[in-house]
């Protein structure tokens, strides 16, 4: 079937697309590195005509024009499902709000959310009339279906990401088409420096790995370091079922470590819901049938995750208290990132036969004034949000060791966590545990 006539009939300019938005509307503006630059710029030019336009996006990868032109937040109210560094800086100026989310529940949430206008970034149309969501399947199929007016912004530079479900939308479901004036390359994440502490932690994580493991890596330098060590290791027949696909998966695949042969679900496929990295990753993804993009209700469902054996989920955290509560998204009232899929994969890995849910973090962090602060805390400070409840936390790994909290009493947890805390803070942590009545005289000090 020839879709040229339908395409032309729906083709409008970004300025015409921006005029679809009315004061008070809810507007959807993409996810991760797939954000609509042309429609954003056109909407920003309408600032003085609009008030109370509420915007949703996920992990903004660059500063939107609508935020630049409205420093008092009188016209555009930005909301992010998962904070990036840009989101944090905006929040510090009261220009962005966080939307709490357990990631795999997003499909159900969107059924009750207003989406008056969606500016959805996509790849060029294919011969069958489909636009691909590229690197950001995630929640795109939900928000586009919910939209009263759907505008797709075509970026011909974006890779076509093949999938198992929900990776594309047909032209018949689209109201309007905007062709990007720049077709700009996707944002490339900066390479994060790897510290000696990251390397020590990664080496301990590697001790928990096994042939045939199905791996998930979170965001950050340490998970990427694990990926680098896997690429250099003797491990074989690894599978991938992850939330985020990053560059280190390319390295592992090209080193022959990833085959997916031992997976029980999506055998042979590298399953993910969004991808962020460098051109190396984006080029790898383009029309690559070994990669399978899925919407998040499938990819992050703990019961889907658990159907693969030996799931090793590796995620970072900001701090862990002596009770085993994990804070990975906010500290002392400041939103840093979000719940994301960490809770989904911690639960999923635990229910996987042979699975290992891992929280990996440095034992301490250096403040701007040079002082050292422990990341193992007596208790979480006011305003710090619990991402993983103590009843669900399993493996915690620092550069000083690994400890599995599952099935452990409060005094056993305190002892195990203090043993992997930074030595400079262990005495005061023991004192705090004693005051909280979660310490026994028989505890082995720094076993």
UniProtKB/TrEMBL annotation:
Organism from which the protein derives: Syntrophomonas zehnderi OL-4
Q: What is this protein called?
A: Probable butyrate:acetyl-CoA coenzyme A-transferase
Q: Which positions carry the signal peptide feature in this UniProt record?
A: none
Entry-linked InterPro entries:
AcetylCoA_hyd_C (IPR026888), AcetylCoA_hyd_C_sf (IPR038460), ActCoA_hydro (IPR046433), ActCoA_hydro_N (IPR003702), Butryl-CoA_acetate_CoA_Tfrase (IPR023990), NagB/RpiA_transferase-like (IPR037171)
Assign the protein's first listed, main location to one coarse class: cytoplasm
Q: What family classification does the UniProt entry report for this protein?
A: Belongs to the acetyl-CoA hydrolase/transferase family.
Its annotated compartments are: Cytoplasm
GO process annotations (BP):
acetate metabolic process; acetyl-CoA metabolic process; butyrate metabolic process
Q: Which UniProt keywords apply?
A: Cytoplasm, Fatty acid metabolism, Hydrolase, Lipid metabolism, Transferase
Give the residues annotated as active site: 243
The main enzyme category here is transferase
The Acetyl-CoA hydrolase/transferase C-terminal domain covers which part of the protein? 277-433
Q: Which GO terms describe its cellular component?
A: cytoplasm
* Cross-referenced SUPFAM superfamilies: NagB/RpiA/CoA transferase-like
Which residues are recorded as binding CoA?
Answer: 218-222, 318, 341
Q: Which reaction does it catalyse?
A: butanoate + acetyl-CoA = butanoyl-CoA + acetate
* Function comment: Coenzyme A-transferase that converts butyrate to butyryl-CoA.
């Amino acid at each position: 079937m020839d879709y040229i006539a339908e395409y032309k009939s729906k083709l409008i300019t970004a300025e015409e697309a921006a005029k679809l938005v009315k004061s008070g509307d809810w507007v959807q503006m993409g996810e991760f590195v797939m954000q609509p630059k042309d429609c954003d710029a056109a909407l920003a030019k309408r600032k003085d005509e609009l008030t109370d336009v509420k915007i949703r996006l996920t992990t903004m990868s660059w500063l939107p024009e609508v935020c630049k032109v409205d420093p008092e937040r009188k016209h555009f109210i930005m909301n992010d499902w998962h904070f990036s560094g840009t989101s944090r800086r905006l929040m510090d100026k009261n220009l962005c709000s966080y939307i709490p989310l357990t990631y795999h529940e997003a499909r159900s949430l969107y059924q009750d959310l207003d989406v008056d206008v969606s500016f959805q970034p996509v790849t060029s149309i294919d011969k069958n009339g489909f636009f691909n969501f590229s690197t950001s399947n995630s929640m795109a199929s939900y928000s586009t279906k919910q939209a009263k007016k759907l505008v797709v912004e075509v970026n011909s530079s974006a890779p076509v990401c093949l999938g198992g479900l929900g990776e594309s939308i047909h032209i018949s479901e689209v109201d309007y088409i905007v062709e990007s004036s720049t077709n700009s390359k996707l944002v490339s994440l900066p390479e994060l420096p790897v510290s000696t502490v990251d390397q020590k932690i990664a080496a301990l994580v590697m001790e928990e790995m096994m042939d045939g493991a199905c791996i998930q890596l979170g965001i950050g330098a340490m998970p990427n370091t694990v990926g680098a060590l896997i690429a250099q290791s003797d491990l074989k027949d690894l599978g991938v079922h992850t939330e985020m696909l990053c560059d280190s998966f390319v390295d592992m695949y090209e080193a022959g470590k990833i085959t997916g042969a031992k997976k029980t679900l999506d055998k042979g496929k590298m399953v993910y819901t969004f991808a962020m990295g460098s051109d190396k990753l984006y080029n790898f993804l383009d029309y690559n049938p070994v990669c399978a993009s899925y919407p998040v209700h499938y990819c992050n469902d703990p019961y889907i995750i658990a159907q693969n054996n030996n799931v090793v989920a590796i995620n970072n955290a900001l701090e862990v208290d002596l009770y085993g509560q994990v804070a990975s998204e906010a500290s002392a009232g400041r939103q840093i990132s979000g719940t994301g899929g960490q809770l989904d994969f911690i639960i999923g890995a635990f229910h996987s036969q042979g699975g290992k849910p891992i929280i990996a973090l440095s034992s301490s962090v250096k403040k701007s004034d040079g002082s050292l602060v422990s990341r193992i805390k007596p208790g979480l400070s006011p305003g710090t949000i619990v991402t993983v409840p103590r009843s669900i936390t399993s493996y915690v790994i620092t550069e000083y060791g690994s400890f599995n909290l599952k099935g452990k009493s409060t005094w056993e947890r305190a002892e195990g966590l203090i043993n992997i805390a930074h030595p400079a803070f262990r005495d005061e942590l023991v004192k705090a545990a004693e005051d909280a009545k979660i310490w026994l005289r028989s505890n082995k000090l720094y076993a």
